[in-house]
């Protein structure tokens, strides 16, 4: 781990739950801060937070902007050695599996900011009579989790770390959010002097800056790729072990062909930012993939196809009809529950792509009231200020460093 050449240079350290990528680099204004003369780095501890070994790949142009950590001890030593002239910007809740990280920050006395400008629905209450097959799949999922002895062994230690972190608690200086209600893991970081600022979500700001020109000469529907089943979230919650990629993409490609035949719309894929190029062949050769163009693709699409995703924000912002895609492969796991919950939330059509016969012609139109409610609760807070994350960080540096 390289130390600062200039010990008086001010450090900005970003920490997210997931591995560093170009999207994070852009959204967190790395280029802007580097031009301002700051030492800005992404502290890569996603594997330590999620307790899963991720396949890490950093594009060459951003590889120097990330510092990876293999152990918690390495991270603690780094934080202790950078306790002066540093500020930490986090998108991580204060819960049992992140307590060790927060304890290091609390003890070092480093000022930190919390930002939550994404739009994720925290939980759903779904009552459903499960079939025997679904019950067996759910049992299989639970057994897979229970067989992860390392996780069971680590749990008591996480609880101890949580209490130890609370014993040296330091509140956040600023919480910057687009939500009407903070999650419990973020409310736990609020102190009497914590400043809470409300702003438009990152997706809303991105959406407002998008060009009107289409990326396709034909009318199309855009599929929001979730990089199933390889995505870090699915690996860490064991979905990866419950169905095979070849089965999933066989169904998906077959569905795309049927969809195009019935609607006349070609399907374009908005590739997940964590998808690696070596997996592009998951899709048939006639399917076009775009990277880092999700918002742009949604804006000019006739329809949005998805399971569930935070990219639903763009569909809401641009008032696009959504078609939710279910599968028998998802039964008994979170993908099944969330896909159904999202379709219910927006009163949108849901289709099971495992069925040999599907109807893609009769898709529900946009439910304006449900879209507007979601927009106000998750994307545009009623008290939003016209202030950007980079301005909040600059103000914090001025006030606390």
Summarize the structure.
This protein has 16 helices and 13 strands.
Characterization of this structure:
The chain has helices at residues 22-27, 30-35, 46-50, 72-81, 99-108, 132-146, 149-167, 184-187, 202-208, 232-236, 245-263, 294-299, 312-317, 334-345, 368-379, 389-400, and strands spanning 11-15, 39-44, 66-68, 86-90, 112-116, 174-177, 195-198, 220-224, 266-271, 288-291, 303-306, 322-326, 349-352. The longest helix is centred in the middle third of the chain and has 19 residues, at 149-167. The chain has 2 domains: 11-124 and 136-199 and 381-400, Rossmann fold; 207-379, Glycogen Phosphorylase B (Rossmann fold), CATH 3.40.50.2000. Strand 2 (39-44), helix 3 (46-50) and strand 3 form a beta-alpha-beta unit. By secondary structure, the protein is an alpha/beta fold. The radius of gyration is 22 Å and the shape is globular. The protein has 16 helices and 13 strands. The strands form 2 sheets. It has a 7-stranded parallel beta sheet with strand order 3-2-1-4-5-6-7.
Which helices and strands occur, and which strands form pairs?
Blueprint: E1 11-15, H1 22-27, H2 30-35, E2 39-44, H3 46-50, E3 66-68, H4 72-81, E4 86-90, H5 99-108, E5 112-116, H6 132-146, H7 149-167, E6 174-177, H8 184-187, E7 195-198, H9 202-208, E8 220-224, H10 232-236, H11 245-263, E9 266-271, E10 288-291, H12 294-299, E11 303-306, H13 312-317, E12 322-326, H14 334-345, E13 349-352, H15 368-379, H16 389-400
Parallel strand pairs: 1-2, 1-4, 2-3, 4-5, 5-6, 6-7, 8-9, 8-11, 9-10, 11-12, 12-13
Helix pairs in contact: 4-5, 5-7
């Amino acid at each position: 781990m390289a130390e600062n050449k200039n010990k008086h240079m001010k450090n900005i350290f970003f920490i997210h739950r997931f591995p560093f990528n170009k999207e994070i680099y852009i959204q967190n204004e790395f280029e802007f801060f580097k031009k301002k003369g700051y030492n800005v780095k992404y502290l890569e501890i996603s594997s330590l937070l999620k307790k899963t070994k991720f396949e890490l790949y950093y594009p060459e142009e951003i590889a120097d902007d990330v510092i990876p950590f293999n152990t918690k001890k390495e991270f603690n030593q780094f934080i202790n050695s950078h306790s002066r002239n540093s500020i930490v910007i986090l998108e991580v809740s204060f819960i049992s599996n992140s307590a060790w990280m927060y304890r290091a920050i609390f003890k070092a006395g480093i000022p930190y900011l919390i930002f939550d400008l994404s739009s994720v629905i925290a939980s759903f209450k779904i009552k459903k009579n499960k079939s025997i097959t679904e019950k067996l799949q759910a049992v299989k999922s639970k057994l897979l989790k229970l067989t992860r002895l390392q996780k069971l062994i680590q749990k008591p230690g996480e609880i101890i770390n949580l209490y130890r972190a609370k014993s040296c608690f330091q509140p956040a200086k600023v919480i910057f959010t687009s939500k009407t209600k903070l999650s419990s893991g973020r409310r736990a970081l609020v102190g009497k002097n914590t400043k809470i600022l409300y702003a438009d979500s990152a997706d809303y700001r991105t959406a407002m800056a998008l060009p009107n020109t289409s990326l396709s000469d034909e009318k199309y529907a855009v599929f929001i790729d979730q990089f199933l089943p390889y995505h870090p979230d699915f690996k860490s919650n064991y979905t990866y072990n419950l169905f095979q990629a070849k089965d999933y993409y066989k169904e998906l490609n077959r569905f795309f062909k049927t969809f195009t035949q019935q609607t006349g719309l070609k399907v374009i894929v908005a590739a997940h930012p964590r998808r690696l190029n070596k997996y592009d062949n998951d899709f048939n050769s006639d399917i076009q993939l775009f990277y880092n163009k999700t918002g742009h693709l949604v804006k000019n699409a006739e329809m949005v196809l998805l399971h569930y995703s935070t990219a639903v924000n763009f569909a809401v912002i641009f008032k696009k009809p959504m078609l939710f895609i279910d599968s028998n492969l998802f039964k008994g796991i979170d993908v099944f529950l969330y896909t159904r919950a999202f379709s219910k939330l927006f009163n949108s059509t849901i289709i099971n792509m495992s069925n040999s016969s599907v109807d893609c012609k009769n898709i529900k139109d946009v439910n304006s009231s449900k879209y507007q409610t979601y927009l106000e609760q998750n994307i545009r807070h009623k008290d939003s200020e016209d202030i950007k994350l980079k301005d909040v960080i600059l103000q914090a540096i001025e006030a606390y460093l």
